[in-house]
């Protein structure tokens, strides 16, 4: 059908006068009642106004903390592969995650935002004088890249992890290593399954942990 409609050769000469075409188009497409106010349409459904305002503001640190606290330790991690336990054990890291969440809503005090909020005279990046948007501050400032500040920020995340692991190791050294006992099962009896505790499982198995980091 499309081939029949559009595939044919399109050429020829228009023989009618312009006035005739104008009149035809006017008669076909003109709405003489277009200026008439038709009033509200009674067919439209008018739902009542919602009495609870939808909260579209960025999450607060407290909300993020409560959500992470409520997450099950055994639940599978998301696409990042980082289980919620990491955020439960590292409050500093959780705070960093929260800041990244704020960045999604673009409500961090970047120079461009501060300028919009009337808190700064200029939206420029103080280091390179380009426009200091969030994207620029986080990953696009050539001066920051040249000075190795992005690497420093990356290492701060590693440092937060290292601090938490160090604290956990110090704590594990004060605890007694649990005796490994084999639970024998008598003939005819069934073995009882003991769910392993998820808290400090690995670190509690020894007291001579050594942890080396270079950040
Ligand atoms: Zn810059």
Automatic annotation (TrEMBL):
Name of the protein in its database record: Reverse transcriptase zinc-binding domain-containing protein
Organism: Nothobranchius korthausae
């Amino acid at each position: 059908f499309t081939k029949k409609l559009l595939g044919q050769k399109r050429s020829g000469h228009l023989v009618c006068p312009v006035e005739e075409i104008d009149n035809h188009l006017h008669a076909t497409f003109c709405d003489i009642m277009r200026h008439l106010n038709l009033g509200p349409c009674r067919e439209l459904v008018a739902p009542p106004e919602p009495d609870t305002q939808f909260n579209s503001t960025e999450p607060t640190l407290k909300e993020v903390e409560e959500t992470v606290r409520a997450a099950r330790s055994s639940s599978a991690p998301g696409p990042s592969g980082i289980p919620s336990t990491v955020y439960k054990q590292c409050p500093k890291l959780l705070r960093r995650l929260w800041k990244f969440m704020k960045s999604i809503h673009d409500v961090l005090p970047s120079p461009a935002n501060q300028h919009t909020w009337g808190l700064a005279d200029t939206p420029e990046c103080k280091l390179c004088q380009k426009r200091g948007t969030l994207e620029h501050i986080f990953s696009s400032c050539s001066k920051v890249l040249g000075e190795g500040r992005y690497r420093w920020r990356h290492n701060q995340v590693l440092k937060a992890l290292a601090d938490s692991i160090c604290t956990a190791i110090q704590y594990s050294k004060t605890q007694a290593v649990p005796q490994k006992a084999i639970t024998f099962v008598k003939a005819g009896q069934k073995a009882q399954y003991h769910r392993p505790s998820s808290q400090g499982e690995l670190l509690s198995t020894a007291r001579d942990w050594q942890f080396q980091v270079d950040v």
